[in-house]
Design a protein that fits this description.
Layout lengths: L14 H14 L11 H8 L3 H13 L3 E4 L3 E4 L4 H15 L3 H26 L2 H20 L2 H17 L4 H9 L1 H11 L5 H17 L3 H21 L1
Antiparallel strand pairs: 1-2
Helix pairs in contact: 1-3, 1-4, 2-3, 4-8, 5-9, 5-10, 5-11, 6-7, 6-10, 7-9, 9-11, 10-11
Length: 238
């Protein structure tokens, strides 16, 4: 197989950066399971990094199940499926977006668009299985709110918003959100809940549920948009 020209990496020392470079080589050349990577010596030369960094990067990708080393034969692609693509994407996000605040703001803006549409669909179509679970989560959130258990409230609040995405049945979107879970929990933590805002959050949840039960998608969309804009405002203020 002919490998496209590999662009040298300048001043790279960390194995994580080399890992990203190897992932890019796999994606850009559309390497499939069973395809062989260039030798470690060739990768070291073309990327202009030490062979030690190459070996460490290969080990990282082996631990993810993306590569496998066959003694005496070389390193081969083991998998290049959607999960690994998304894992790579998440790594790239964390690596390329230097300021966490920028990352959280942009992610909240994405949530504003995606979750509002997903909740609109849930209210419009009356997806009973998800509505029942939605109501259960709200009851649990109310209990945690009354106890002022903010950490537990944040985690369960995330589960509520994840359920909204799961209700779409869109597998790509669901997997994508699962890889964003760590970042999203940071958003819930960063937005925080103080007296008043916690009550506002709980009221919004009940408003969403009422709109879903009433099969009023416009009302549901309006409430969650307000809810997420409040979160966005708190993050941008920080």
């Amino acid at each position: 197989m002919i490998i496209n020209k590999i662009t040298p990496l300048k001043k790279l020392k960390r194995s994580d950066e080399v890992t990203l470079a190897l992932e890019e080589i796999i994606k850009e050349n559309n390497l499939q399971p069973g395809d062989k990577l260039p030798s470690q010596a060739d990768l070291s030369r073309d990327l202009e990094v030490g062979t030690r960094s190459i070996r460490e990067a290969i080990k990282i990708l082996e631990s993810r199940g993306m590569l496998e080393t066959r003694p005496g034969k070389g390193v081969f692609v083991k998998s290049n499926d959607l999960d690994f693509f998304l894992e790579s994407l998440m790594g790239s996000l964390m690596f390329k977006v230097k300021e966490e605040s920028d990352l959280l703001v942009d992610l909240t803006k994405i949530r504003l668009v995606v979750e509002s549409h997903a909740l609109y669909e849930m209210a419009q179509e009356g997806k009973e299985k998800y509505v029942a679970r939605f109501a259960e989560l709200i009851d649990s959130l109310d209990s945690l709110g009354e106890k002022n258990d903010i950490d537990a409230y944040n985690k369960l609040d995330y589960e509520l918003h994840k359920l909204i995405i799961e209700s779409t049945g869109n597998k790509i979107l669901i997997i994508f959100y699962s890889y964003l879970s760590e970042l999203q929990l940071r958003i819930f933590h960063k937005a925080g809940y103080v007296l008043g805002s916690l009550e506002e959050s709980m009221a919004d949840h009940h408003g969403m549920l009422d709109a879903i039960i009433e099969r009023d998608p416009d009302k549901a969309k309006r409430i969650i948009e307000r809810h997420l804009r409040s979160t966005l405002h708190k993050i941008m203020e920080d």
